[in-house]
Amino acid sequence: MKKELPKIDWQRADTLIRLALEEDLCGRGDTTSISVIPETTVAAARFVSRENCVCAGIELARRVFMALDSRILWKPLAEDGDFVLAGGFLAEVSGPARTLLTAERTSLNFLQRLCGVATMARLYSEAAQKGGKAIILDTRKTTPGWRNLEKYAVAAGGAGNHRIGLYDRIMIKDNHRELAGFEGTDGIRRSVERARGSYPDLEVEVEADTLDDVREGLAAGADYILLDNMDNATMSEAVRIVAGRAKLEASGGITLERVPSISALGVDFISVGALTHSVKSIDISMEILPQTA
Predict the structure, then answer these.
(1) Domains of the chain in sequence order
(2) Is 228 a catalytic residue?
(3) Does pTM top 0.85 for this prediction?
(4) Is 207 one of the catalytic residues?
(5) From the candidates 173, 194, 245, 280, which is the catalytic residue?
């Protein structure tokens, strides 16, 4: 049974689609298709993945075509979260041929990117399960304007979502600690207390660079402690110190190769910026189908 995916903010997504199409057409239109393809020509095409991938963004791709012409017919051949083998089909689209060609690249740009994110999330999640039970999380290192879509794709790939933005969790990072230190010692304690007082409904996470930071965050009552750029031996000691009294998140310098060994340490989460900031788009093409009699 597939897990329920986070909701896509379609108002924002449709705005992105509109901006992407405007960028491509610039008020003049698809001059090549207009000049080469008769207006009455109809056709069908399939989206084909050239490599193994996890599908994400099928509905988004459909909406690109619909934004241009409501006569378009769209048939999904895979669902978000499905694993698709190289050569497999993701969707079929049919309708006015000019529209198919005009929407092709914009639709592919969305689909290829989101499938790339979902596929990366699946790779990291599977690596984590080889070593232990740690949950892979994304970060805020997302493409500006695409955060909702990229975090959706992360979930489609089987990983988890960290905070969405600056508004839904208190996260006391190194620069917060540095500034809190201007007032004297015990900066972590003061920061946690102020956060609790200002936003009692929000969970509080503290970034720790050292084991002393871990102890201070634990004593302050943080819900989560982020172990930043620590080696495995140090994180193992942090797990022993915390002993389940707070959730532990490993972050910084995380590679796919390191994930199984980090998961085996007993941390609860492993956050990976590469899920969204270093993703290779999946090679997907739209192929016009032969005309049938």
Answers:
(1) 10-123+279-288 (3.90.1170.20), 124-277 (3.20.20.70)
(2) yes
(3) yes
(4) yes
(5) 173
